[in-house]
Amino acid sequence: MTQNTINVLFLCTHNSARSILAEAVLNHIGQGRFRAFSAGSSPRDNQQPNPLGMQVLQQAGISTEGLHSKSWDEFGKADAPHMDLVITVCDNAAGEVCPYWPGQPATAHWGYPDPSAGDGTDGQKLEAFRLTLLALKRRLELLISLPAAKLEKTMLQNTARDLSGM
Q: Strand (E) positions, the chain?
């Protein structure tokens, strides 16, 4: 697995904020060793990525090209990319019964508060997105800096779960 790209799927309920941020960040910093995807357990009809999330990514110099909200059902299909690691980034998705993932990927939960929740001003929400982006980036930088041995399939789940405490 360490010779090939490691596919990581980030899950949240609606796939409009945290999971989209994680996908974009890991694809940006993954150095070709990682390929990130994101999905939601129950995205709303016509769900789109949160505009404030897109703004924060663009301000950080991270591409938003191709980012879109989608259901996790897409990744359970026979022609879907094989996942090596599935990470829930919201507590709601972590508590849901996930579909069967072909290949039995490693799993972990990295909970983050919803930056779009609450009644703050757009400026306050933008700052919440920026802080969420920074927190995700710090944890993902730790993941990509791991030695190859820590990324072997037998070690990946424990390693990803250990990172949840950081």
A: 6-12, 34-40, 85-88, 106-109
Q: Could you state, in order of their start, the residue ranges of all structural domains in the chain? A: 6-156
Instruction: Give CA–CA dist 138/157, Å, rounded.
Output: 19
Backbone angles phi, psi at 40, to 5 degrees: -125, 150
Model pTM?
0.88
Looking at domain 6-156, what is its CATH homologous superfamily? Response regulator (3.40.50.2300)
- Report whether 75 contacts 39 (CB < 8 A): yes
The three-state secondary structure class of 52 is helix
> For 40-51, how does the pLDDT look when each residue is reduced to its tens digit (9 = 90+)?
988 877 889 999
Burial-class residue 69 by CB neighbours within 10 Å (0-12, 13-18, 19+): buried
| Radius of gyration of the CA atoms of the chain, in A | 15
Residues, the chain, total? 166
**Both tokens assigned to 118:** 């609450």
Q: What is the maximal distance between C-alpha atoms in the chain?
A: 46
